[in-house]
Amino acid sequence: MPANAVVRHIVTFGRVLREVGVEVGPGRVADALKGLDSVDLGRQDDVYWTLRQTLVSRREDIEAFDRAFDAWFLRAPLKRPDATKEAPPKRGERRKGATPGPGPEIDGGETSLGAWSREELLRTKDFASMTPEEFARAKKMIHAIAVARPQRRTRRLRPDSKGRALDVRGPVRASLATGGDPVHRAFRSRSEAPRKLVLILDVSGSMESYSRALLLYLHAARGSGKGVETFAFGTRLTRLTPELASRDPETAFHRASKRVADWSGGTRIGESLKTYNDEWGRRALTRGAVVVILSDGCERGDPELIEREMARLARQAYAVVWVNPLKGHADYEPLAGGMRAALPYVDRFLPGHNVASLQALAAVLGGIERRHAA
To answer: Is the model's pTM score more than 0.70?
Structure first.
């Protein structure tokens, strides 16, 4: 089986495990792929024990893993266990994690006055481990986050009581009511307008667990106003600005998936950046813009090409922000050749694995300053 097919197979199997309740993140999937490199893929036992060793961390998940393995690899029907109804708590008792109230907790006999928040838990949950229901709830949160735009100062002046520029016309007009005596002074300051924003999303196979959530961010940012351009790349660059113009996210996703021919395929970051610089950078799209690249930095081509094209991009852009979903994991290090080549030309290097990280991205964009600004 080709290497790309194995990667897609295991990534999809990780999604199957999450559907049956097993927590599987990108780190465990990467460990599984490394383990499969050392065994004979033609032997079922080797594949089973390798995946179980790397993807299962709790004893109670073994049964769910076995059922998912049989369904995915052996094509056996996936039977979900009957949900056992929990006995209602005795009067005066409450379950752990329930709404605060009187009575001891059943599992420890201690009373906790704190309450957990579903939204707070959702903010910090990895996109790769979200259920469809959780992802649907996260859509509204992402949409609210993406309206934040970087700002720039314009040449136009607006009335401002704390401004430093004296508004000469205002006091002169007001002096007509006081016999020519300028009693009141007025000041103005330069107004602000949204800065151009360019979003470039990696939709290759290694980003499959995050590309849909990040595409939702691109769609919401596209709807925040003028001056937003969106692109996607796998093995080649595709402009998605017209496709993401629809207000309905599902319609926009459908149009984008039809437009991008290399979705969940290979990765050619350097060639895609070169296409962007050659075709769109020369149209002055990059000049004065904040460019946000959303990618894990896994490059199958020449890392030196990424270095050259990132240098070109950094010279033209106001600032370059790189959002890497893998950076949200504690043990992540930028060891991939593409990521190492790009980092010297990146102004901000941020995670992008959950809603909280996208909120941090919005805060950074709202106050972004160029790395070498005077």
So the answer is: no
